[in-house]
Amino acid sequence: MRHFIEVAQLGSFRAAAEKLHVAPSAVSKQIKNLELALDVELFRRDRGRAGLEVTEAGEILLFRCASVVNELTIAQDEIDQLQGLQRGHLRLGVNEVLASDLLPGILRDMSYNHPGLKFTIIVENTREIVERMQDGEIDIALGYNFPPTQEIETLATLQRRTYVVTSLHHPMARLRSVRLPDIDGEKMIFPDHSIPMRQLLEDALVQSDVTVREVMSTNSFTLLRQMVESGMGIGIVFGRFLQIRREKIAFVELADLPFESPPVACCRMAGRTPTASSTAFAATIKTLFAQYGGHAPHRVASGDRL
């Protein structure tokens, strides 16, 4: 099964062999035996240098294999607990802005309380995180803009306010709040177009008849905040820091917006048995979110404090 998954994902017997540290002939033999056992062709082998192509039967098997691998991970986690080894594996997908804000403190505490726990943290955009959850590579996710589908279960959400971020020396830094017209003419550092927030901001600026000068765009909010701190321009972000405050920047609430900022959400695939480590992570997130007015989906939010 492992040989098949790697070949399907990498599109090459040789690449799979290198990753598995075995001979290409061994991988080829395993795939051939699997095809004989199932009496189907799993790969089209006539693509030359373009690589192998998974057949329709292969796609079905790959989908099922992802579920099997996920169940094996869960089983290992449960066995570890049964044996009292306090081991486990947290496979988490997270948006970059949260990886540098919320996550370090949470992981530090979980590592302290569960010293045998292993962490695999995938920092990606939400679309990639969802794909990895579907493929069974990630057990739980933390981020923005998860699609509202039945296959994704939302465990907790936190609504965050929208802020203009400036250097401490900027004239706006001493204000408590501003409106979009107040940033007219400012030099602006934008998130790039791969981030849904970009379109929200552009539409809001047009609706408010506000013109800013774009001096930079980036898919990294960490870099955005660092360049704001340097005085290169201002930025707009969802939420203040919750746990780590490294950059010396000012957060000025942006009021009267024509849109509502999307909530931070903790999600997992519906219908799959959660690992113990992901359940513990979800419980930690629920507790943290509750401190800031967040809520589980079946409850009413108590307010926005960020």
Write a brief structural summary.
Belongs to the LysR transcriptional regulatory family. Residues 1-55 form the HTH lysR-type domain. Helix content is 39%, strand content 23%.
In words, what does this structure look like?
With 306 residues, this protein is an alpha/beta fold. The chain has 3 domains: 2-61, Orthogonal Bundle (Arc Repressor Mutant, subunit A), CATH 1.10.10; 86-159 and 263-291, Periplasmic binding protein-like II (D-Maltodextrin-Binding Protein, domain 2, 3-Layer(aba) Sandwich), CATH 3.40.190; 162-255, D-Maltodextrin-Binding Protein, domain 2. The chain is built from 10 helices and 13 strands. The protein has helices spanning 2-10, 13-20, 24-38, 56-82, 96-99, 103-113, 126-134, 197-207, 221-229, 276-291; strands spanning 43-44, 53-54, 87-94, 116-123, 140-144, 152-158, 162-167, 177-179, 187-191, 213-218, 235-238, 249-255, 264-269. Strands 4-3-5-13-6 form a 5-stranded mixed beta sheet, sandwiched between helices. The protein has a 4-stranded mixed beta sheet with strand order 8-12-7-11, with helices on one face. β9, α8 (197-207) and β10 form a beta-alpha-beta unit. The radius of gyration is 23 Å and the shape is elongated. The N and C termini lie far apart (47 Å). The model is unreliable at 298-306 (pLDDT under 50). Residues 1-55 form the HTH lysR-type domain. Pfam families: HTH_1 (PF00126), LysR_substrate (PF03466). This is Transcriptional regulator, LysR family.
